[in-house]
Design goal:
Oligomer: homodimer
Distance between the termini of chain A: 44 Å
CATH superfamily of the largest domain in chain A: MoaB/Mog-like domain
Radius of gyration of chain A: 33 Å
Strand content of chain A: 25-35%
Number of helices of chain A: 8
Chain lengths: 426, 426
């Protein structure tokens, strides 16, 4: 790829803004089981179809009774009631109480017709078919009335709410088995290149195993999208056009990798150009790695072509695509922890491009954390796996001096391992 | 439930420690697809089965050649080589180079036999079957040698590593389609009670919909476990004993809810007692809510009986069970954000029990955040859904004064919504 062919390279900030213009939260809903709602976003208000509780319940083990019968009860002068029966938890009472009667109830049992109060078992004495009360009971005591927690028709959870485990409890207390949430964005993933082989097949000279299908799949899931794996496509114009066209139909966003440069063998720009009228077309972003990235939109649907190199492809994904998918999925933006560090060596950068430099913590020196930058080319499959994070070097910076202060964006798994309170942020 | 029957109530800290004694990370592995490894923990070292790259690759578009042929090349005195052919990306070269020859190569293409260097296209001029070189090429220039990134047999990722998206890229570059990770703990979930109905069925008098099956299912997933839903069991000794016994076989941990008090209708203590020799048996934990909790272990397998009330059940889950499942699943402990707040009203607590009080931020007052406590009884299905977090009131505290400083453990979804930098933590 010669630099000269990128005539209209777009600034990183502008590329980011352009994509965001097409990033709309998905508005369609889908019904899912209440046992799977955790972290999903409700797309409709939920009103309670029932009163909760929907029958008067006892909050104690004791005796359901008519409070007025007990007003004169005292420690030295108990009131005696006739024990008319018992109500078990989960059963409908087969008795109604008349004045002078009581029924044994357990916590959670239904209060029988006629009763308005429950005396705690501790304040009573049962003897054959009678119960002695040593204290007056007041009306409503130890009775949870119908609808105390929720009323039928009451708004319970509002649309737009990100559902918690607790919310799923509320939904199931209403007897709901399904609920409508916003569906997740479907993201088609296509790797292109004659050199690519799928996992598990025998390696041939000149070929390499496809990495991007696997990494982008998992990155999309983590961003809140549903990956649609469309596999590997050979560098063949007609095939690429076919698969891209059908991907635009079946998904909300299409991610292609490989074939994005402006060389004669790089077909993706031509494939995209012939899709029809493009609402957006940016070929070349002033970032490093990631210059050959293509951002395009046809009929409002985004098609993004990432560079073929796995590290470049992932860096462009996190810098430009992850914020897009999260917005469509109504997920919070992903924010990396930042750490104040110092360069272990002089670091060169390219003027005019925003550089995302993977780097590794090399040592601590007098309370300072020193970092070394790492390669991002084709020889660098292991770079991101070994990196602790990355630095962002602005467009107007040509180099960082040795021992220059800089911010490290720490990868999440490293945040767990590195004690950031020591030396880093002070 | 009378307090007096809990003769040997166990301190919360001791209960926690006892469970942890039985919490061992799962040691068995399982093979999963490399496209699903994100956040899983490798159970075996992975060594590279191949060199990466496994053929010498060009890192540039240009001409593969014998460097020694070009040592005398200069701007004003180019060296002319015979163009013997072209190597496409993904193809095995069908030519070998002799002295005086070169072959056109694209970035990523295999270097043909005999060549040891690639001249960048920018420093050459092609004319029919000859190529003029205007600069000397040095041996190895623009050639990525076999095994530059990884050597066959080299240790690539160590067992115990929590895999990232980047790691999945390394694994797929090796052509691996599967990898062995520690399996997740299987957690059986059983709700008990004659009053319970499953979702979607018609409500009857005296019955309530089962909540714990749904909430605990999702809580277990979030802790890193695999929930095994065993449904609702009636209060029937033989049935309960059967289901618990088979759950102990099919899972790593059994979670039961309901029937845990010491009343005559509460069967769970009896069911557990007849399972055989128990390595651990705690009935009654000095916490609120959650006193009737049962912690037991038979042949090293934990069986935990949670209270039936949904809020109590979830609070005990998060306080005692979540740390257990996370340890078994090799997940990081779940740490809630803490916020310095003040009580909006006087808050009563029970001496001798550690109280977990759900509460809600009621207002801000002169930069202070005020919180109100919320009910946790059977009438409180909505409490946790509406709470912003909870306070922990120690065993020796009988009440908190109005306007007393206290720590709020903020629920995660609230951390996103509440700007904690304002007034809270300063």
């Amino acid at each position: 790829m010669k630099d000269s062919v990128f005539l209209k390279i777009t600034r990183f900030e502008d590329a980011f803004t352009q994509i965001q213009r097409f990033a709309h939260p998905i508005d369609e809903g889908e019904r899912i089981r209440v046992s799977e709602v955790f972290n999903r976003v409700l797309s409709r208000d939920v009103e309670s179809p029932i009163d909760v509780p929907h029958f008067p319940r006892s909050s104690r083990d004791g005796y359901a009774l008519v409070a007025a019968d007990t007003f004169r009860a005292a420690e030295d002068k108990p009131v005696t009631l006739h024990l008319a029966g018992e109500v078990h938890v989960g059963s409908k009472p087969n008795i109604g109480l008349r004045r002078g009667e009581c029924a044994k109830v357990s916590t959670g049992a239904m209060i029988p017709e006629g009763a308005d109060s429950v005396a705690m078992i501790e304040h009573t004495e049962e003897d054959h078919e009678t119960v002695k009360l040593y204290r007056p009971a007041s009306p409503g005591e130890n009775v949870i009335k119908i609808g105390t927690d929720l009323r039928a028709g009451q708004l319970v959870l509002k649309h737009g709410r990100k559902l918690t485990v607790f919310d799923s409890g509320v939904l199931s207390s209403l007897g709901l088995s399904e609920v409508e949430v916003y569906r997740k964005p479907k993201v088609a993933i296509i790797s292109t290149g004659n050199e690519l082989l799928g996992a598990g097949v025998r390696l041939e000279a000149g070929k390499v195993y496809d990495v991007n299908s696997v990494t982008i799949h998992q990155a999309v899931t983590a961003s809140g999208g549903i990956p649609l794996d469309l596999g590997i496509c050979r560098d063949d114009f007609a095939r690429m056009a076919d698969i891209v066209r059908s991907a635009l139909v079946s998904s909300d966003v299409v991610l292609v990798s490989g074939g994005t440069s402006k060389g004669p063998g790089d077909l993706m720009p031509k494939v995209i150009q012939q899709l029809g009228k493009l609402d957006l077309y940016i070929h070349g972003v002033a970032m490093k790695p990631g210059k050959p990235t293509i951002l395009s939109s046809i009929k409002g649907k985004l098609l993004i072509a990432l560079p073929g190199y796995p590290t470049s492809s992932l860096i462009v994904y996190y810098a430009l695509v992850d914020p897009l998918i999260r917005k469509m999925a109504r997920e919070q933006p992903f924010e990396l922890q930042r750490l104040k560090v110092y360069t272990a060596t002089k670091v060169y950068s390219e003027i005019g491009r925003r550089e995302f430099k993977p780097c590794r913590i090399s040592k601590r020196d007098k309370g300072r954390i020193l970092v070394k930058s790492m390669p991002t080319g084709s020889e660098a499959i292991t770079t991101l796996a070994n990196a602790d994070g990355f630095m962002v070097i602005p467009e107007n910076v040509e180099f960082l001096e040795e021992n220059e202060e800089v911010e490290l964006y720490l990868f999440p798994q490293r945040s767990e391992e590195i004690d950031c309170t020591k030396g880093g942020t002070q």
